[in-house]
Amino acid sequence: MKPAPGRMVLLLAAILSAWGAGAVSAQQPVNASYFRQVEADAAQRYDEFEKRYREFIQLVEQSLALRRDAIELFTKLHEKLGGESHLTAANQRALQENLERYRHNSAELEVFLEAYAAYSSAEVNIEFPTGEPSSSETIESLFGSGETALRINPTDDFGRLMVLEIKMWLAAKLMQFDNYVVVLVRYLKNSELRRQFDLENVDAEGKRFLVTMTEEISDPDKYRRTVRMVRLVQAIQEYQRSHPTSKIARDKDDAYLDALIKGSYAYRRIPELTVGDRDEIVSAIKRNEFHDDVIGLTDDATYELSKFFGNAIGLYEERKGKLYGMSGEAQQQITATLRPLDILFEKTPFRLTDLFIPGHWGHVAIWVGDRDTIPELERLGVWQELPRLESEARERFGYAGPSFRALIESDHGVLEALRSGVELNTFARFLNIDDLAVVRPGGLSDTQKRTYLLAAFAQVGKAYDFNFDVETNHTIVCSELAYVVFHDVDWPVEESVGRYTVSPDHIATLARSEGDPFTPVLIYHDGRALPAEHLHRNLDALLREDYDRVIWQ
């Protein structure tokens, strides 16, 4: 079926607009003073980069979640339409909402592209690596126009900062392109899905987006600029591989950006596109015709991208945790010691997201009990309230999982906020980790226990808080579980990028010393159990990240 021009073009324009986001800024005259300012005070500018970097990571996590949701949604719609059915109003609304979230996320990512667009400009000549100190210089041409020459030495502060800014620009560019490739491929592969959005007119904004997208591929200068940045980052990465002791090679933020870039489908695919490939894509967009050969240029991207973020989105794993695969008997010995309201901490240095979480601990969960604790839940009057809380979760948060009672009866006693939302999981699933700590609140009355447990179950079904803001209660992040459940505890918080956040280490801080509101009851470090008689000292050593002070025997 050949789709008619119309709203589908507008939707595609909105979907694809992100690919051209950085190009607008890159065409603006480059002000060499930007680089001189960075060079003059690299240390202060690095602090500014760090703040922006934290915001960028939050947007990456949002992008990965959107990508997962888009794949799930489009897979369901394709299956439905393949059965000769049609899209309902609810289906269309879900589709529109998903695309709107993409557009919003794209607009926020554009901020980062604009901030560092100067690096991709044709008016900037970059030399890397160089044995000279990093520097910027304005070069006057015969025609009076100035170009900026950048010399990047990754071993000094100025060069280190420029490398990070270059990588952030490319990571944002590739993240947007990969996201929209997923939507593009899934959207276009079904003619009925396309037909649902056919209208006669495309507004001016939609046309502008569409032109921006086509120019990114059809304009040789813009295309070469993107490829140039890919090649530059490849050279940087090769330098870091051959110089593993360089300062930048040990940076967590650099490692995170590298993982994003290397995991990108576009990072590998963009430089391989021939002129014929690009002409065919542009022609198809302009004609509003997407044949199988055009779709085939990007069809394998969905699989590649799914692999990258498929492991619980964003939790990219280099390996399994050292406690993964613990015997059932050993697990039962641990769960037999757990009590409802124990707080669980984990450390996963093999996961991508662990790289940017400050401190030692990377995740927090709450133990609400398994089938062996049902009598205790009944005694506290919590078991009787679970059907009501479940009903509220379904109505307020769209919870669609098993009944709360069924989950506890099947030993799903770990309450945790994952990027898919707040859910109950088994202890075995939780154990894909290297480090584990369990801390317990002391001196609680039955009334307090009941109040806290009801508050804990009331979180099931809430969406993940990608802003990490403790002052919001409609969404939640892992460490906020303890903050919300133990509502009358004076938790330490930190102001970051205009919002108050609480980290896993903040939570663990209230169990590091005798007399604190919480007490450690067990700790595993690097896959090994630590002695019970030194739990406070070892928790303090881990919180200080002073691993030489850990007492093993």
Task: Describe the protein.
This protein has 553 residues and is an alpha+beta fold. The protein has two domains: 7-119 and 155-309; 328-549, endopeptidase domain like (from Nostoc punctiforme) (endopeptidase fold (from Nostoc punctiforme), Alpha-Beta Complex), CATH 3.90.1720. The protein is built from 23 helices and 14 strands. It has a seven-stranded antiparallel β-sheet with strand order 7-6-5-4-8-13-14. A three-stranded mixed β-sheet has the order 1-3-2, with helices on one face. A hairpin with a 2-residue loop joins strand 13 (518-525) and strand 14 (528-529).
Summarize the biggest pleated sheet.
7 strands, antiparallel
* Domains, number: 2
Low-confidence stretches: 1-30, 194-207, 290-303, 305-315
> Roughly what percent helix?
40-55%
Q: What separation lies between the terminal Cα atoms? A: 72 Å
Short descriptors:
553 residues, alpha+beta, endopeptidase fold (from Nostoc punctiforme), seven-stranded antiparallel beta sheet, three-stranded mixed beta sheet, 23 helices, 14 strands, globular
Strand and helix map with partners:
Layout: H1 7-16, H2 21-27, H3 33-40, H4 42-82, H5 89-115, E1 124-127, E2 135-140, E3 146-151, H6 157-188, H7 191-195, H8 204-218, H9 220-242, H10 252-262, H11 265-269, H12 275-287, H13 292-295, H14 299-309, H15 328-335, E4 343-347, E5 363-367, H16 374-379, H17 386-397, H18 404-409, E6 414-418, E7 421-425, H19 427-430, E8 435-441, H20 446-457, E9 463-464, E10 475-476, H21 478-485, E11 494-496, E12 499-501, H22 504-509, E13 518-525, E14 528-529, H23 535-543
Parallel strand pairs: 1-3, 9-10
Antiparallel strand pairs: 2-3, 4-5, 4-8, 5-6, 6-7, 8-13, 11-12, 13-14
Helix pairs in contact: 1-8, 2-5, 4-5, 4-6, 5-6, 6-9, 6-10, 6-14, 8-12
